[in-house]
Amino acid sequence: MKYFACFLSALVILGTSACKKDSGAKGNTTLQGKWKVIGSMISSGGPMYFVPDNGNHYAQFNTDGTITGSAFPDEVYYKIKDSITITMTKADKITYEDYYYKIKQDSLTLGPAGPIVCIEGCSIKLIKDWVGLN
Fold first, then answer.
1. Are 63 and 77 in contact (CB under 8 A)?
2. Domain locations in the chain?
3. Which contiguous run of DSSP H or E holds residue 14?
4. Beta bridge partners of 127
5. What are the two backbone dihedrals, phi and then psi, of residue 110, each rounded to the nearest 5 degrees?
6. Nearest CA to 40 among 31, 50, 30, 32?
7. What pTM was estimated for this model as a whole?
8. What is the pLDDT of residues 30-87, one digit of tens each?
9. Cα–Cα distances in Å, from 50 out to 71, 99, 119?
10. Which fold has domain 26-128?
11. How large is the greatest C-alpha to C-alpha distance in the chain, in angstroms?
């Protein structure tokens, strides 16, 4: 029993020391900030494929719940609905669009989740603009 306790303690120590945080990485960021559009995933009935953007479009998600930029020109407000859905609202505060979102390190993927959806699938890909952050 004494050997089992030592073995179990060593296993716990090895397991926790193997998990190393990278404090210098800019990953797992929040939605707030400036995001550059890099392209879109689209489909015309077949498999989805990537179409690059010209690099001039961006979305700024401000801490006060407003959106600025050219990526979503009609949307003015946003609200995080849950861990996978964000609601963007037009200036009239009535017309809205839900988007699923996923943040993975420095990238953000948004796709329509209702009331308008893409039957074949579509999404917009953005990357965090660390230089453009205020």
1. no
2. 26-128
3. helix 2-18
4. 36, 107
5. -125, 135
6. 50
7. 0.72
8. 899 999 999 999 988 888 999 999 879 999 999 999 999 999 999 999 999 999 999 9
9. 17, 19, 17
10. Lipocalin (2.40.128)
11. 70
